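Section: protein folds

Sequence with per-residue tokens
===
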Amino acid sequence: MAREDHLRKGSDVSAYEALIAGAISGAVSRAFTAPLDTIKIRLQLQQHSFKNRKTLPTIVKNLLREEGLIALWKGNVPAEILYILYGGVQFTSYSILSKSLNNFEKVYNLKLSPATHSLIVGIGAGVASIWVTYPFDLLRTRLVANSKRNLISMTSTMSKIIKTEGFFGMFAGIRPAMLSIASTTGLMFGSYELARDFSRKYDKIPFIEGICGFIAGATAKGITFPLDTLRKRCQMYSVVHGKKYASAFHIFMNIIKKEGIFGLYKGFGVSILKTAPTSAISLFMYEYSVTLLKSFKS
């Protein structure tokens, strides 16, 4: 039988429970999907037109031949920190915002559907998460983009960014990132609630939270993927072009002009392969961890 839906409107999850369960879900989901994340970023950072882009097998073959197997885990340290922090902040802010919105609805006699409630709260949780974790997202991208066999350290990369681009260089591309993450997170939580509502007819299916999370992750990423590509290009602009700053709109128009509309969808297939299982594992581990924490309390 399916466990209680701890993300549903009106659910009673404390900030402490959400923080612990969110951090666990982030750590576990990252451990399973690190190589796919590396490949996705490499595909997104290609500057060729969509027609002349390197294919997935070519990217993987070149990466393994020139950089070794360990290259699939480049940027894993900041990525692990990112996922643990992101998971903790995302689910904690989700829990707090959900209760606040629930109280707001009661005071003003509003009646939002569970899916709409989760969509709004998810957007807020996405905004909170990206502000806390964005420097680690940028560091992860810079380390993954390094095509040399020798690994570079997170601290030296961070020092170089601050020295050459200033402190705010750590936040390059945060505007498209805010739009991307907020919309993706909102759509993921909203889709998850719709899937959970539908799944109540099939509550004896094992891992139902994971299946609903898979559907939610694929839906959200499918809609917002171009913003994710734009975010990665913004994060690498100073490295690729040797210039300190360019607006997200300028970079967006360059992609359209030189690579066509499909340039925004480079790495989309790998992204779905990565994001859908990540969302499935993340949401399942969160639900399971909250259930476990509550059982310890009782």
